[in-house]
Every structure is written in C-alpha cells, then in structure tokens.
Amino acid sequence: MRLLPLALLAVAGAAAAEPVTYKIDPMHTFTHFAVRHFDAATIRGRFDKKDGEVTIDRAAGTGSARISVDVNSLSTGVPQFDKHLLSNDFFDARQYPTMTFEGNQFTFDGDKVASVAGQLTMHGQTQPLTLKATHFGCYQNPMLKREVCGGDFEATIDRTQWGMAYGVLLGQPKQVQLHIQIEAVRQQP
Q1: Residue extents of the structural domains in the chain
Q2: Positions of the chain with pLDDT under 70
Q3: E strand or H helix at 9, and its extent?
Q4: DSSP code of 159?
Q5: Is this structure's pTM higher than 0.85?
Q6: Record: fold of 17-186
C-alpha cells in the first residue's frame, strides 16, 4: 500500500508543465514574402539569414519565440530589384538591417501550435502580428539524436503600417503575404 502514493506522486511529477527551448535550424527554416505587382503577377522573395529560438510548454499551453532576420540577406533572384527593395524606398536596410518577431501568445490545437501572436519590428516600427500555422509537427531527428519541431506559418500584412508606402499611390498593393517554414532543434537542459 505504501508504493501506491509514491507511484501517483511520480506520475503527477512527470505530467507537470515543463518548458522546452528549441534553437532555429537555419538550414531548414525559410522566410518568404509575396506581393502582387500592380495586381498582375506575383513577385516573390526570401531572406536567407535568420536566427532565434522558441520555447514551448505544451502542458501549460504557453510559449515564446524570438526570430531575427538579416534584411540584407534579401533575394528575389534579380540583383537590381533586390537593390531597390533594400533602398530607403522600401526596407532602408542601411538604417534598419534587422527584422525581429517576438511572439508571446501561443494558441494550441491539442499539443500542436496553431498560431503565435506577437510583435514584428521592421523598418524601425513595431506592430502586432499573428502567424497562423497551416501545419505543425515534431520528430526525432536520426542524425542529431534530438527532437525537432517545426511548421508552416502564414500572415498577410499591410506594409504601410511599417512605413513602407512606396508605389501605393501608383497602384502598388499594400498587402504582402508572409510564409515562414521553420524547424528548430531541442536544446539540452
């Protein structure tokens, strides 16, 4: 009879909430954007340098994220266009070389992340942003011998909220689609 209370205590301790930190894997994390060009073709681009970490507590239903993007790593595949996007007409990368997303409100569907709400700082301005997951999953990476979690996240922003209004009066759309595919590696305690 004495073993039953000890066994229940052990099970209760195992079920306690435990935050887990994951470091972003830059080789499996991609940040893309898409915007219509005069409401005709869609122009796409990406940022190649990113860093950050995510902490998730599935049992408590909480989490936090900090993702930093090097604006100067922008690539559309057309160097002349990249130069214009990095100019003060758009990103003004010389003055604002980094974009940062800090998420502090995680929504879960079971044990899977459904959305992350927080603040996006870009072009020297900070505005609210919610990234919605279209997919989320975790797996045991056979090479790293660690858990990796990740997913596909999306949002649509109005670029003028971050002070990027170039071309709007000429008919360029304000709406920009963001697509973030992220994988992050569990850090050892």
Answers
A1: 17-186
A2: 1-17
A3: helix 3-14
A4: G
A5: yes
A6: Lipocalin (2.40.128)
